[in-house]
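Notes taken during the Thursday session

The instructor put the following on the board and asked us to keep it in front of us for the whole hour. The protein is Bifunctional chorismate mutase/prephenate dehydratase. We were told not to look anything up and to reason only from what is written here. First, the residues (361 in total):
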Amino acid sequence: MKPTTLPEARVRIDALDEQIQGLINERARVAEAIRDIKAKAGDVGDHYRPAREAEVLRKAMERNAGPISNETMAKLVREIMSACLALESPLTVAYLGPEGTYTQEAVYKHFGHAVEARAKRAIDEIFRDVDAGHTAYGVVPVENSIGGVVTNTLDELASATLTICGEVLLPVHHHLMAKVDRIDQIKVVFSHAQSLTQCRNWLHQSLPHATQAVVASNGAAAQQVAETGQGAAIASKAAAERYGLNVLASNIEDDPSNTTRFLIIGRKLSDPTGRDKTSLVFSAQKGAPGALFELLQPFAKAGINLTKLESRPSRRAAWDYNFYVDIDGHCEDAQIKPVLDEIRSRAALFRVLGSYPQAVI
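Then, after some discussion, the predicted structure tokens were revealed:
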């Protein structure tokens, strides 16, 4: 029955909060039971399952009747899942630090806030940390809708033994921040190279005489400005709050749809979900006319959608390239597996970098 007075509404809210809290704790007790069941079966590793979590989030969105939006509902369920998973086993995740980077935001969007997020100084450190088993997973930026690919990540993927097991799509809004409180006092702007590219027009119009300095991450830029008091940083609002900086201008990215895609790297392949993506790296036989066409043609013949194609120097020889391809579907799908086998037989180098659920939120 719908409340008709404010006191009635507050009583109803209190009763619902009590029910919700009880159900969350009941879910947590089931999570603890799952932990015990797995322990008896000898499953003592981390209990994060990308396919299962994607399934839970999609179901939450499908059964949502509003007025809360599907995305908001999924985010709420994500945090509950995160807290319950932490009861099974604490999850450690490496990210490009320091605190306040967009990569840290991507960690919390994908895993929830109940994980132990560990900042690393560079992308290659994240790969090494996960490969050595110091952290269970890593989160790395791979491409931006304006600035293009993150070449360091692609190069690391080519040689790493790790697997891509998830992706995160993060809308990115840049802010100019500094210790000073006036924009005309800024002589130098610090940020990641990608962020400077994404704000190129704004910087040209608003700070035409300021120099631009590239640093390892947006968080590092904010930290440097906070510690030295010199210049300004382009970073997230969270970074401004973390380092006590004044936001001099907001949403300075040239395209309001600016989005960065991040990859989750780990050591195990995700199970198929029906809505997956597969990432590949391969190289053609050098000097063979039409070699690249021969590698791409099987996708078209099988009706498989390519969502990405990038090339990078292979580092094996001059003018030799690796090709990075994303396709819709899972490498174990009946339609896709024979196509990958055919390409593998023709390629000089071929590796499945990972099959994983498409980003849900």
